[in-house]
Design brief:
Largest sheet: 5 strands, parallel
Radius of gyration: 20 Å
CATH superfamily of one domain: P-loop containing nucleotide triphosphate hydrolases
Distance between the termini: 29 Å
Number of strands: 9
Order of helices and strands: EHEEEHEEHEHEHHEHH
CATH class of one domain: Alpha Beta
Shape: globular
CATH architecture of one domain: 3-Layer(aba) Sandwich
Strand order of the largest sheet: 2-7-1-8-9
Length: 212
């Protein structure tokens, strides 16, 4: 029986190290596909269009909304972010596990549309470390950093919607934890119910044959 892929939604406080985690996960394991989000924010130094994000203006983004081209989208800190539909659906059909790195609003929308999606929230070990990582980027103003920290307080109120929380303290350990979560999710009863029903039918037929 062909295995279908799983949607893995990875969220977390800005500065928790989600991007580094996803990069390392893709390097270590070959069953993942990373969905590239579309955004209206400007690229940071080193970011490339079509590799890190699809960078577009608000008019183009809103045209995609009208065309139902997103699985989800949200407005975060004054910019749109969205998950293009076509690529995700293609990868799932091919049996690949698709990682969506999105914020909490989008994660909840995904869970409502795809109940089997696995929601993982990434957090640093403490608030002080979060602030240090944001300041260490050197790419954002103090005002933006304050907004992100303020947003983190709001996001902390929605963590109960997630299936798992992982602490990004040691990178390799965190990568292993996320991979273990995905492997376990493929074995959930809800995910395997069709296969079990098929086996039950076959066993029933064998049992009747033995009695006859």
């Amino acid at each position: 029986m062909k295995r279908t892929g799983i949607l893995i939604v990875v969220s977390g406080f800005s500065g928790a190290g989600k991007g580094t985690l996803m990069k390392r996960l893709l390097e270590r394991y070959d069953n993942y596909a990373l969905s590239i989000s579309m955004t209206t924010r400007l690229p940071r130094p080193g970011e490339e269009h079509g590799k890190h994000y699809f960078f577009v203006d608000r008019d183009e983004f809103e045209k995609h909304i009208e065309d139902d081209g997103f699985i989800e989208y949200a407005d975060y800190c004054g910019n749109y972010y969205g998950t293009p539909r076509a690529y995700v659906e293609k990868c799932l059909e091919e049996g690949r596990d698709v990682i969506l790195e999105i914020e909490i609003q989008g994660a909840i929308k995904i869970k409502n549309k795809f109940p089997d999606a696995v929601l993982v929230f990434v957090t640093p070990p403490d608030a002080g470390e979060l602030k240090r990582r944001l300041m260490g980027r050197g790419t954002e103003t103090e005002d933006v950093i304050r907004k992100r920290l303020s947003r983190a307080v709001e996001e902390a109120q929605g963590i109960e919607n997630y299936d798992y929380i992982v602490v990004n303290d040691e990178l390799e350990k965190c990568v292993e934890d996320i991979h273990a979560i995905v492997i376990a999710s493929h074995c959930k009863v809800q995910k395997s119910i069709v296969r079990i029903e098929k086996i039950s039918e076959e066993l029933s037929g064998i049992s009747k044959g033995e009695k006859e």
